[in-house]
Amino acid sequence: xxxxxxxxxxxxxxxxxxxxxxxxxxxxxxxxxxxxxxxxxxxxxxxxxxxxxxxxxxxxxxxxxxxxxxxxxxxxxxxxxxxxxxxxxxxxxxxxxxxxxxxxxxxxxxxxxxxxxxxxxxxxxxxxxxxx
Length: 132
Fold this sequence. Notes:
This is Pol polyprotein. There is one protein chain. This protein is an alpha+beta fold. The chain folds into two domains: about 1-30; about 35-115, SH3 type barrels (Roll). Helix content is about 25%, strand content about 25%. It has helices spanning about 1-25, 110-115, and strands at about 40-45, 55-65, 70-75, 80-85, 85-90, 120, 130. It has a five-stranded antiparallel beta sheet, with no helix packed on it. A two-stranded antiparallel ribbon has the order 6-7. A hairpin with a 5-residue loop joins strand 3 and strand 4 (about 80-85). The longest helix is centred in the first third of the chain and has 26 residues, at about 1-25. It is elongated.
């Protein structure tokens, strides 16, 4: 019977911790609503170096999804699905470069359709694999 009490106490502590985390996250959250054809900047998750730009874009909102998700596209027509937390409004000024080149925005939908294959050749000597 004591094991069941520990399980219930652990479950209650887990719920309390999740509620506190959600409250702290939502406290600093900016709730910005974007419309279709709005220009936005996308936050770069993995920086190549500390001198790399934190924001890339501009992108255009192509579609509004559920639960704060947006489909964005660049000037090349590449599309990606991004949460609204990762977007900032793009405000063009005379001192800014009009269009920044994206660091490789690729459509997540297209990525799931393609199967990436690795060409493997077997050498005659020793049967080692050579990756091309």
